[in-house]
Design a protein that fits this description.
This protein folds into 2 domains: 128 residues, Aspartate Aminotransferase, domain 1 (Alpha-Beta Complex); 274 residues, Aspartate Aminotransferase, domain 2 (3-Layer(aba) Sandwich), CATH 3.40.640.10. It contains 15 helices and 15 strands. Helix 4 packs antiparallel against helix 12. Bound molecules: pyridoxal-5'-phosphate.
Length: 454
């Protein structure tokens, strides 16, 4: 089909006039208009002008199984035909929701025994916060209301979650953070005084958590939230052992340890969950993205038996725990998730991702020598390049230069999609189905893009 220029112009005009975009500069977007994506297959996208793009970011680090997985489409269609909707409210349930909850309990760390199915990552974080508040209220410690998270962390953009997020753009104009939200240093090796010594960096993070809890009072702190690798903060990969050390410290400090695996879950960093690599058993875990590989919206908040029982047994007998949404435990989302999980395991997609990850690492490492690249970091198929104007001083770029926008546009022209954070970090998270020749294409196009920026 020949792309129709008039149809494209008409669509763009409608977008500018009517569609409010998430996380976009609204007025600037109206001026520029959107890139309209129209189809996808494997790791390849086509826009409505027929331009072909290699997607090195799996949509928004979610399409882990690639585009066009027919069995996932069939799972959704069959469930829609049989029963498109069933509430999870009250005592209703549906087979896909039941099977998915059991499957999630089976594959997540052993501490997690209950699954609450949500609408996506922000909803998972929001539910986690509300469950934690209930847990302490119902177990006789209502003063434990303060939450600690990491600087540069991202935990979605619900009214509360956006305050656990520590990126200024999500606070500006929204009266955040709340007085109960606090941050500690990020394990950002490239820009940390102890960055060259992994054990010192871990010790510094543990000390920062202890100090913050001491400052607030352990009897007032509810939980510590963290991503095993900070995604939207710039793909900050902490040293191996960091997550376990933070989990141990939280336990010792008598605060709940919440791992946000919305990005790192479902094979993104190699194993099914980043927690698995270090034997971490959190009190709560938040999930989304790779759970349905982006085919439909669905997330999960996983709870330990201690937290579940604290809420359930502490509530007045017979009263409802007043949290839920019409689309909680959506049967179509659950049916899709079950098929996506089958593809990761029986379909060999997780194993394939682990197999090609060294090629991804090599591609990023080779770019360290590029004059614009200050740092390359990666684990599994999650990675970033940090660009600097001066390698010795690690000086970044003045935001007024609009470098991120320029790089994105040059990349797009070169048929490559990735993500820019701030003005100088480029993020990569291809589908776990990407082949080695396709990875070589990613790095050819990326090098060409960086050379054109110079
Ligand atoms: N938590 C983390 C670590 C995320 O990266 C994201 C989204 O990028 C979220 C939560 C929010 O998820 P969602 O965008 O599905 O609401």
């Amino acid at each position: 089909r020949r792309p129709d220029a008039a149809a494209h112009d008409a669509l763009v005009a409608l977008d500018r006039a009517h569609l409010v975009h998430p996380v976009a500069p609204w007025r600037l977007h109206e001026e520029r208009g959107p890139a309209v994506l129209s189809s996808g297959r494997g790791v390849w996208l086509t826009d409505d002008r027929g331009h072909e793009l290699l997607d090195a970011f799996a949509g928004l680090w979610c399409v882990n199984v690639g585009y066009g997985q027919e069995s996932v489409v069939q799972a959704a269609a069959q469930q829609m035909r049989r029963l498109p909707y069933a509430t999870g409210y009250f005592h209703f349930s549906s087979e896909p929701a039941i099977r998915l909850a059991a499957k999630l309990v089976e594959i997540t760390p052993a501490s997690l025994t209950r699954a609450y199915l949500t609408l996506g990552g922000s909803d998972s974080v929001d539910a986690a916060v509300r469950f934690i508040v209930q847990y302490y209220n119902n177990t006789g410690r209502p003063q434990k209301k303060h939450f600690i998270s990491l600087q540069r962390g991202y935990h979605g953009s619900s009214s509360t979650g956006a305050g656990l997020t520590a990126l200024p753009v999500f606070h500006r104009g929204f009266d955040l953070p709340l007085p109960t939200q606090h941050y500690i240093e990020s394990p950002y090796a490239y820009r940390h005084a102890q960055g060259n010594d992994p054990q010192a960096l871990i010790a510094s993070s543990v000390a920062a958590l202890r100090a913050k809890v001491a400052e607030l009072g352990a009897d007032r702190v509810a939980a510590f939230f963290c991503e095993p690798i900070q995604g939207s903060g710039g793909v900050i990969v902490p040293p191996k052992g960091w997550l376990k050390a933070m989990a141990d410290a939280a336990r010792e400090l008598d605060i709940l340890f919440v791992v946000d695996e919305v990005i790192t879950g479902f094979g993104r960093t190699g194993p099914m969950f980043a927690c698995d690599a270090e034997g971490v058993e959190p009190d709560l875990m938040t999930l989304a993205k790779g759970l349905t590989a982006g085919y439909v919206p669905l997330g999960a908040t996983m709870l330990s038996e201690k937290v579940y029982a604290g809420i359930a047994d502490g509530a007045p007998a017979g009263t409802a725990i007043g949290h839920g949404a019409t689309y909680s435990a959506h049967p179509v989302g659950a049916a899709v998730a079950l098929e996506v999980l089958r593809l990761y395991e029986e379909g060999g997609i997780l194993a394939h991702g682990e197999q090609v990850a060294p090629r991804f690492a090599q591609g990023l490492e080779a770019l360290r020598a590029h004059p614009l690249v200050g740092d390359a970091r990666h684990r599994g198929l999650l990675g970033a390049l940090e660009l600097v104007s001066d390698k010795a001083s690690k000086r970044g770029f003045d935001a007024s230069l609009g470098l991120a926008d320029r790089i994105f546009n040059i990349g797009y022209r070169n048929g490559l999609v990735f993500r820019s954070f701030g003005d100088h970090i480029l993020g990569f998270a291809p589908a776990l189905t990407i082949t080695e020749p396709e990875l070589d294409q990613v790095f050819l196009r990326l090098r060409k893009t960086l050379d054109e920026v110079l």
